[in-house]
Amino acid sequence: MSNLGTYFEIPVNDMDRAIKFYSHVFNVEFTKEVIHGCEMAFFPFTEQGQGISGSLAKGEIYRPSVYGSLIYLSTESIDKTMAKAKEVGGEELFLKTSVPNLEFSAEFKDSEGNRVALFESI
Fold first, then answer.
1. Higher model confidence: residue 104 or residue 5?
2. CB 3.0-4.6 Å disulfide test: which of 56, 72, 81, 97 passes with 119?
């Protein structure tokens, strides 16, 4: 049986601004497509990698918000990633916190107004 999560979409209002934000914070490049009339910018994905991937999504049904579903993005260092997010207008919402024997997590608001969590393995 596979894990339930397979893909995520982060709503955006300004695709170029969002790509600039996430490219800076996570040092990644995006590929862009239009699907069902919506602009999509896909995070990198490798078949051999662990976890899921997703995209930034702009369209009539997408509304950035700090409420609703929360996606956790993996990082080797929450401290470094949070600093990079702040450099490009991100706002720290939840300080780095330990979940005993499991992980560290934190949350920020991105350039579009979404609440996004960071996950750092112990």
1. 104
2. 72
Distance between CA atoms of residues 106 and 79, nearest Å? 9
DSSP 113: S
Cβ atoms of 112 and 11 within 8 Å: the answer is yes
Please report, as a single letter, which amino acid is at residue 63: R
Residue 23 CA to residue 43 CA, distance in Å, equals 9
Query: Which whole-number Å values give the CA distances from 104 to 35, 93, 99, in the listed order?
Result: 35, 15, 6
Distances (CA, A) of 45 to 3, 31, 53: 17, 11, 6
* Residues belonging to the chain: 122
User: Model confidence over 28-76: pLDDT tens digits?
Assistant: 999 999 999 999 999 999 888 888 999 999 999 999 999 999 999 999 9
- pTM equals 0.92
Pairing status of strand 115-121 against strand 72-74:
parallel
Main-chain dihedrals φ then ψ at residue 45, nearest 5 degrees:
-140, 135
Per CATH, domain 7-121 is 3.10.180.10: yes
